[in-house]
Amino acid sequence: MAPSALMTAERTRSNVVATTAEATRSDYSQYLTPYQTAKLAASMFSDVESDRMLRCLDLGAGTGILSVALAERYGGRMGVDCIELDPELAAICDDELARLEVRHRVVVGDALMAPIEPGYDRVILNPPYRKMAAGDVRQAGLPARSPNLYSAFMMVALWALAPGGECVAIVPRSWTNGQYFQQFRAWALSKCSLDAMHVYGSRTEIFADTNVLQETMLVRFSKRPQSPTVRVSESQVKDGEPVVHEYAFDELVDVEGDLTVRMTPAERGPLDGMATLKASGLCASTGKVVDFRSREVLRREFEPGLNRLIYARNFTAEGFEHPVDGYKPQWIDCSSEKFAKQLIPAGSYVVVKRFSSKEETRRVKAHVLDLDEPQALENHLNYVHAGTPRRTAPLDPALARGLALWLSSTEVDAWFRARSGSTQVNASDLNAMPVPSADQLVELGGRWSLGLSQEEVDGLCLSVLP
Known about the structure:
Elements: H1 5-19, H2 22-28, H3 35-43, E1 54-59, H4 65-74, E2 78-84, H5 87-99, E3 104-108, E4 120-125, H6 149-159, E5 161-172, H7 182-191, E6 193-200, E7 216-222, E8 229-235, E9 243-248, H8 249-252, E10 283-286, E11 298-299, E12 307-310, E13 315-316, E14 319-320, E15 331-332, H9 337-340, E16 343-344, E17 347-353, E18 366-371, E19 375-377, E20 381-385, H10 397-407, H11 410-419, H12 427-431, H13 438-445, H14 454-462
Parallel strand pairs: 1-2, 1-4, 2-3, 4-5, 6-8, 12-19
Antiparallel strand pairs: 5-7, 6-7, 8-9, 10-20, 11-15, 12-15, 13-14, 16-19, 17-18, 17-20
Helix pairs in contact: 1-4, 3-4, 10-13
């Protein structure tokens, strides 16, 4: 194979990205792999000492650049089966591999439905990222429930491995923690060895030309008993030398809890020993209104009898603002029984935005919300209250202010970043967060005010630590 094969494949990929409508890429969840990432993914596989032929699989092959990277890695000692849903991309993949004289077979179809026989020595994939409904018929063919297409693809990939086989996947970090991916983690870690992980310093670094906002990583599993150590690497720029560490498996994986996977060992810190938010008798829930499913009751202008609909956009550094002119409908008609159930009672709450990014100063963005009458929260907000998952009850106002201060601290931010690989802050994450006692939160709340600097917030919160 010519040394420039991967660069040739990159030109093909770039041309497809430039000439394919964004709507088409969205329909297929296409995030075609740049050559630097393809090369790194292929390099994560083990060397092969013998001259035996490797049987390889590329799931969601796109233009075939990952298969080209594999061919550069192993030369003529491999053949690859490629599965791609988009017939146009499948044809490009076929032409690309044929031109480079790579032994291959291209199957046009859904990788989650294709008749795949296990026994592959190497599986490589950059799967689609999209929510997968619990009622999706393809769930029945999976060994565990999958909340997203990418974890479903990973299960197929791991199932397809031969004993001793290896899989490298380019995926979001969200699988590493949280209840949504708990079944997937339990299954994957019981069947395969977690061998290596690579994370990028910026979530926009590797898919800049396809507008991917996920925090992305590379992970290698193998069909072997669990390795005692896991290789973890990080690069700050695409072409930079990665920083590499070796950690004991049980330093990275919480085998006693929900099998949370970390990128660095958990260090004992000042929050250890605190009760979680849930154990303290508080409850984090998610806003009940999904606006695009509720269009018939949304209103842009206030009318008597309407309730406020509160979005993340309504919270700023200066406090709460409603309505926000020129934004989405700010009012909702909850006169029907269906929507009346989506209101939260008057009182005090702590509201936390569900979406953040790795590059933001703080991942957890908490605000105090005081309601003088029942209002509705949109689904991109979490709120902390004193009730249960089925019954919302307001917080003591001073406790609410203390909790908002606490969740805004650098200590909590560091705790969350060390454990979460997701760009979301879910209610389950909040329920697992360590918090001071109710008396300490009330004490903090008495010192709360709008406009505190980060240094002032941290100073107040440190005052209640042991």
